[in-house]
Predict the 3D structure of the following.
Amino acid sequence: MQQQKYYIRRAAIGAAFFLFCLSFAGTGQAAELVTGRYLNKTGTRFVLEISVASSAPVNLIVIQKIPPGSGVVMADPAFKKYNRKKGAMRWLLRNVSSGRHQVRFELKQPVSPDSVRAEIRCKNPVNRQLMTIRVQ
């Protein structure tokens, strides 16, 4: 009887550990499904390239950080929201197909490349948790 309790306890601990490890199984893989990089990050014109793998999420949120108070001349595609005080532009890209996509924008005045960064947010297709990809 004592040996059976020990066996059940070990099995329960093993199952809990397995589920814990399984919950992290797709996080590294999902980060590779969506990537971002700047093709141009100098002066007033900026181009953010987003690469989406074939099995990646279909909806992406792109948050582009720029210096607060910066004026935006143009954005393609048009951003969904722009908070000038915080220096944050947001896009909601729906039904994104696999391949490379570009987000372009132009500012009124040149800014330091170090002051421009982006985040791409989407749901991990494996565990459905929100993931954030940072682009410098």
About this structure: The chain has a mean pLDDT of 83. The first strand starts at residue 34 and ends at 42.
